[in-house]
Amino acid sequence: IRCWSNIPFITVPLSRAHGKSFAHRSELKHAKRIVVKLGSAVVTRGDECGLALGRLASIVEQVSMLQNQGREMMIVTSGAVAFGKQRLRHEILLSQSVRQALHSGQSQLKDMAIPVLEARACAAAGQSGLMALYEAMFTQYSICAAQILVTNLDFHDEQKRRNLNGTLHELLRMNIVPIINTNDAVVPPPEPNSDLQGVNVISVKDNDSLAARLAVEMKTDLLIVLSDVEGLFDSPPGSDDAKLIDIFYPGDQQSVTFGTKSRVGMGGMEAKVKAALWALQGGTSVVIANGTHPKISGHVITDIVEGKKVGTFFSEVKPAGPTVEQQAEMARAGGRTLAALQPEQRAEIIYRLADLLTDQREEILLANKKDLEEAENKGRLALPLLKRLSLSTSKLNSLAIGLRQIAASSQDSVGRVIRRTRIAKDLDLEQVTVPIGVLLVIFESRPDCLPQVSALAIASGNGLLLKGGKEAAHSNQILHHLTQEALSIHGVRDAVQLVNTREEVEDLCRLDKLIDLIIPRGSSQLVRNIQKAAKGIPVMGHSEGICHVYVDMDASVEKVTRIIRDSKCEYPAACNALETLLIHRDLLRTPLFDQIIDMLRVEQVKIHAGPRFASYLTFSPSEVKSLRTEYGDLECCIEVVDSVQEAVEHIHKYGSSHTDVIITENEKTAEFFLQHVDSACVFWNASTRFSDGYRFGLGAEVGISTSRIHARGPVGIEGLLTTKWLLRGDNHIVSDFSEHGSMKYLHESLPLPQRNAN
After folding, report:
1. Beta-strand pair 681-684/659-663
2. Domain that holds residue 294
3. Exposed (0-12), middle (13-18) or buried (19+): which is 45, by Cβ within 10 Å?
4. What job does this protein perform (predicted)?
């Protein structure tokens, strides 16, 4: 921790040898020296007269935060001309003897002719005011700023270059933010034939080239160029087929069509790209991003430095495989081809995958052994997660059985008619099932999830993007290879993609134009993070699995300990494991209660006492910190309730709407519990562990959903389908059905076609 002007801030280790730009976005967090270039469109208001003060304040706040982390920040700013234009216009109005008009009304002002203002004069009038504004804003964060005005000649004169370099280094050494701008009041025209001639030469004809020149001169790690567009597009932004380029490589400019420049400013996107490539050649990483969008401008600079997928990142290192955007497009195209196959062909792919899981058992277990050894050596996984990571022969056999169940049950999943209506004579409407589109499944420490989810996506005709945890990298790689091998028998290899790039989960959740549904499989923290990060993409899943078992006063002695043991101890890390045990008050200090406690002790289950349970005991176990706790281990909470009604109320208050159980021989009490508990799965005299797609006969599941929309509980094939409407007519138009038209609506329900009995 360092202090500057009594404000503490964290200093991060940022040193690195300059000379080579960062290869990946994730490395940008190591940038020590950063130049932020603010384009005219970012700094100025929409009317080009005056500054966008709120936006500028937000940028200053972000720069100050990074400066206070121990980084060396520099700003190349536009805005002097716009600020000066505002001041000069005001002065002209006053000097034309309109003071009287100001008092008599605005109508006379509207008729005043304001001459065209010369840019150099505007710059001269605006520089001091612009700098005063920056100084006032940085003062709020106890940071000092200094102004430097340069021209192209300052870089061509060797002595001036050295002086400029020395001044900037001294300012950075003193923790001062240099604010640099071209001296537009005296700037000469650019020198001919001096642009992009080599690493040491670029003419300063706008602030883009100035920022690039400065970044290379100062051996800067990162140059952030903020404009009024999201980044670099493969065609002019706003055109129908324009796509944002995530990563731009030298040599790609031939595939890009540049549009016109922004509403203000000297350069355009072509000038920015040229400057960016020149800086990249000089060893500085570059990101071009939008600094004007109200939803992102408040954190765009810090997001870039944190390595988030914002704007266009310039890199000299091309990845070996496709980008995640390309993978998503491949998955969509492959999914559509998959959906067009005959049901028997999709089933054949799944049967083939099931066979490969058993035939290639040794290779799979060998890869899984590598993952387990690496995880144990690094000590980064808790025991429950290690259990999830582990594969075995029995697990693979169970997987194969589950996949064959999926194949058998998927024969009429896609294209099934679920409603037929005769709208009018010769006008028939059908509602049929269709795939959702492209699914993104993010899973942790569970390689067995990959073939399960792949089989469900294949059966439902969906394209699939898989993002597994790095702790299961070897296992996931071979399982994905086998999945693609199975898909290849019908030429749809690309329908299932495994994301191997350094994409952060948060970045994947922003691909709302490429992904239709996100399904997280992992810890409650992972699910919460994804639900928070998803931008316009629905998330199917549950953030917690706080499952309850209520032991009623009429419970069977023989059933209680069996069900509780299985619910808690069979697989305590599962999301459908018992976490809170509710006991009817009349059972306290009875032989049945003693049997429950003895069984939990034998199974080495740590008990936490709820507030009411603790009040009944002289020496109680540790009192629970929260009744909303998912332990995921051999631990559980015990609480006392007075009735089934109170048990239901407790579940609604502290549960997660996952799975809840009643143990009782009283049918009336059981039915009350089943009807009133508002959870995805509610059981009577059965273990919570039955809440599973395989055990439900779904073959497998992509997850358990506690959502109330679309799918709830274990989600199998049906939960991965949506519907579309097919209308078949014969020259029908709506006006024929008007009051004086010739046709009438019938709206007759028609019989559904017979489902495949096989």
Report:
1. parallel
2. 25-93+118-187+202-314
3. middle
4. Bifunctional enzyme that converts glutamate to glutamate 5-semialdehyde, an intermediate in the biosynthesis of proline, ornithine and arginine.
Of 701, 736, 751, the one marking the end of a domain is 701
One-character DSSP codes across 311-372: SEEE-S---SS--HHHHHHHHHHHHHHHHHS-HHHHHHHHHHHHHHHHHTHHHHHHHHHHHH
CA-wise closest residue to 276 among 14, 17, 35, 33: 35
**CB 420: neighbour CB atoms within 10 A?**
17
For position 186, what pLDDT does the model report?
A: 76
Q: Does residue 105 form part of some domain?
A: no
List CB contacts of 244: < 8 A, sequence separation 6 or more.
230, 231, 232, 233, 312
User: Would you state the pLDDT for residue 15?
Assistant: 47
Residue 1 pLDDT: 32
For residue 12, the model assigns a pLDDT of 40
* Whether residue 237 sits in one domain with residue 160: yes
Domain boundary among 669, 686, 701: 701
Torsion angle, alpha carbons of 574, 524, 326, 233, to 10: 180
474 lies in the same domain as 349: yes
Q: Which residues of the chain are modeled with pLDDT < 70?
A: 1-19, 47-49, 95-116, 187-205, 253-268, 502, 620, 755-758
**What is the residue-wise DSSP string for 96-112?**
TT-HHHHHH-SHHHHTP
Give domain status of residue 734, yes or no. no
Residue 522 shares a structural domain with residue 562: no
Q: How many whole angstroms from its chain centre is CA 258?
A: 29
Residue-level pLDDT at 707:
83
Looking at the 3D structure of the chain, how many domains does it have? 3
The CATH number linked to 151 is: 3.40.1160.10
Interstrand relation of 417-424 and 748-749 (parallel, antiparallel or unpaired): antiparallel
Does 753 map to a domain?
A: no
Tens digits of per-residue pLDDT, 525-537? 888 888 888 878 9
pLDDT confidence of residue 259: 55
Q: Is the dihedral of CA 128, 131, 137, 142 positive or negative?
A: negative
Regarding whether 329 and 309 lie in a shared domain, the answer is no
How buried is 91 (Cβ within 10 angstroms: 0-12 exposed, 13-18 middle, 19+ buried)?
exposed
**Do residues 569 and 667 both lie within one domain?**
yes
Same domain for 257 and 361, yes or no, is no
What is the structure's pLDDT at 167? Answer: 94
Same-domain status, 140 and 285: yes
Residue 464 backbone dihedrals phi, psi, to 5 degrees: -140, 130
Residue 347: its pLDDT value, please?
96
> What is the pLDDT at residue 112?
54
Helices (H), 439-590: 449-460, 473-487, 505-508, 524-533, 557-569
Evaluate whether residue 758 is within a structural domain.
Answer: no
CATH number at residue 660: 3.40.309.10
The predicted structure's pLDDT at residue 345: 96
Judgement on whether residues 566 and 685 belong to the same structural domain of the protein? yes
